[in-house]
Write a structure and sequence with these properties.
With 433 residues, the chain is α/β, with parallel strands linked by helices. The chain is built from twelve helices and 16 strands. Strand 9 (204-213) and strand 10 form a beta hairpin. Helix 3 crosses helix 8 (312-330) and helix 10 packs across helix 11.
């Protein structure tokens, strides 16, 4: 029985630990918090898990909240225009694409606490303790493989930034989220739940995500603001009540069509707000401890994407699935640095598309991309392909990034729909108040 140590109890670390446990490995998991501390602590994230990532969880029997979480059947986009030079106020684009298979969002306090308890109940060894590099160096010789799945703190310094894959050297968004009860339905599609992304060019984005939390159905109001802009105000918030008030004030100013259904919301709990920022980066996958023992980075320890394209939890789930397969296939052979790099490369072959898509959404949108968003308002196949690209970001390579390919794609769809010109809703066209 091979012994494996995993540091970090998030999506990648816990999913991998439970998968290895199910295959007979002797797994020790280190977490800086107990299940009760996670469950009662501050909300950790936003997340939308699409079909491929959910299938990895289902394959391990970890889909504990499937019957309770809202069924997310669509993904919609609104784009704000300007009135007298003022951004927001009106929509120049609004559409919803239908997902081929449902997505879902579960508060990670609920999910990670439950998974950590399950791992322990199944006989896994859990060590609740903060880990420094010196601690890890002392422990590493006892294990056949050490994986780091914690993207913050001292351990992250073990993995050097890869400048060729990391175009940004500073945070590209200031982040602020609130879990709320009492949000009304979106009148454009009251019959089904959809994630909504509201783009306010030059200002930032507002995501509205149906989710499950400990107290039941909730929605996540999530602002991503351009640093130094009008959304960069949450670091001065003094408490959860003020945080929510700022969230709603900004919604009323920049996305009034969303504010109209949020006038009666209240926080799900006293720990339901979070604000911060971080720099997107890709890091070298192998770190060396002072003794020379190599360790393998997993999830956001080595690939840190801004949440603007909702790829973080999905990428972590896919990482855990790839690493589980690679470890199992390795048999009794050593988990040396060469194997570690090959294993990361196997994950990166798919993860690079999520990073590319995320970085593109952080940059100012080119004209042809704005035109694509506009075309989706009048062409449902374009809207649907946008929505399903969040599950498979590799698809965007075929039609999104290049202006000529984008034009050809829209022309083909329009011809197939029997249209000779857009039906409205394109950028600069008919607005919806």
């Amino acid at each position: 029985m091979r012994r494996i140590l995993i540091v970090g109890a998030g999506q990648a670390g816990l999913q991998l630990a439970l998968g290895l446990q199910g295959r007979g490995y002797d797994v020790t998991l280190m977490s800086h918090r107990s299940p009760d501390e996670i469950r009662s602590g501050r909300v950790m994230s936003t997340q939308v898990m699409f079909h491929t990532a959910l299938q990895h969880e289902r394959g391990l029997g970890l889909h504990f909240w499937e019957d309770r979480a809202p069924r997310i059947e669509g993904l919609g986009v609104s784009m704000a225009g300007t009135v007298a030079g003022r951004p927001g106020v009106r929509r120049v684009v609004d559409w919803a694409g239908r997902l081929d298979r449902c997505a879902q969002s579960v508060d990670q306090r609920l999910k990670m606490a439950g998974w950590l308890e399950t791992f322990a109940e199944r006989g896994g060894r859990v060590v609740v303790h903060g880990v420094a590099v010196s601690d890890l160096d002392f422990l590493a010789h006892r294990y056949d493989l050490v994986l780091i799945a914690a993207g913050k703190g001292e351990l992250a310094s073990l993995f050097a930034r890869d400048p060729a894959r990391s175009p940004y050297t500073a945070p590209q968004r200031c982040l602020a989220l609130a879990y709320v009860h009492g949000l009304g339905p979106r009148p454009e599609h009251p019959e089904y739940d959809a994630v909504r992304c509201n783009l306010v060019p030059g200002v930032g984005e507002l995501w509205v995500i149906p989710a499950l939390t400990a107290s039941g159905r909730a929605d996540i109001l999530f602002w991503e603001g351009v640093p130094g802009g009008p959304l960069d105000v949450f670091r001065r918030a003094e408490g959860p009540g003020e945080h929510l008030a700022r969230t709603l004030e900004l919604m009323e100013r920049f996305t009034p069509w969303e504010y109209g259904r949020a006038t009666a919301v209240e926080l799900t709990d006293a720990q339901a707000t979070l604000a911060g920022r971080y720099t997107p980066a890709v890091r070298e996958p192998v770190g060396l401890l002072p003794s020379g023992v190599p360790v393998l980075g997993a999830g956001d320890a080595v690939v840190i994407n801004d949440p603007v394209a909702a790829q973080g939890a999905n990428s972590a789930a896919k990482c855990a699935a790839v690493y589980l397969a690679a470890i199992t296939e390795r048999g009794d052979a050593p988990f040396d640095a060469a194997w570690m790099r090959a294993t990361f490369a196997r994950w990166w072959a798919g993860a690079r598309y999520a990073t590319k898509w995320t970085n593109a959404m952080l940059a100012p949108l080119p004209v042809h991309v704005r035109d694509l968003f506009g075309a989706a308002a009048g062409l449902q196949p374009v809207a649907d392909r946008f929505a399903n690209g969040f599950d498979d970001p590799a698809d965007f390579d075929e039609w999104f990034y290049d202006a000529a390919r984008a034009g050809e794609f829209v022309a083909r769809v329009r011809a197939g729909c029997g249209l000779s010109r857009p039906r409205g809703g394109a950028v600069g066209g008919t607005s919806q108040r």
